[in-house]
Amino acid sequence: MRESALERRLVREVEKIGGLAPKFVSPGNNGVNDRLVILNDGVTIYVEMKAPGKPLRPLQERWKRKLLKLGHRHYKLDSNEDIDRFIDEVREF
């Protein structure tokens, strides 16, 4: 499955639970996450979408570490199963 198809599915599934998942673009900041998932009660989650089995690039790993250190949630999703687990988990927030 292509990364773009997974990304479209993530957006649909997040919208089904009442959230938003806009594309996150930050010119001049390579490696920032693909999607910013915005849920009720001020919950914001950073999501990096990858093609199945593909690892984070070094700059993406660096952003992940920065976000986690600041107390933010970060997910790397690369399969339908990952998306299902993600939705199940964030539905509880």
Q: How would you characterize the overall build of this protein?
A:
- The chain has 93 residues and is α+β, with helices and mostly antiparallel strands.
- The chain is 40% helix and 16% strand.
- It contains 3 helices and 3 strands, in the order αββαβα.
- The chain has a 3-stranded mixed beta sheet, sandwiched between helices.
- Helix 1 (3-16) packs parallel to helix 3.
- The longest helix is centred in the first third of the chain and has 14 residues, at 3-16.
Using the coordinates shown, work out and report the CATH topology: Trna Endonuclease, Chain: A, domain 1
Sheet with the most strands: spatial strand order: 1-2-3
H/E topology pattern: HEEHEH
Shape: globular
The tally of beta strands, per DSSP, is: 3
- Largest sheet features: 3 strands, mixed
The overall average pLDDT, rounded, is: 95
End-to-end separation in angstroms reads 29 Å
Oligomer: single chain
What Rg, in angstroms, do the CA atoms define?
Answer: 12 Å
Instruction: Please indicate the count of domains.
Output: 1
Task: Report the top-level CATH class.
Answer: Alpha Beta
How many alpha or pi helices?
3
Estimate the helix proportion, in percent.
25-40%
Structural class: alpha+beta
CATH architecture type: 3-Layer(aba) Sandwich
Relative strand content: 15-25%
Give the low-pLDDT segments: none
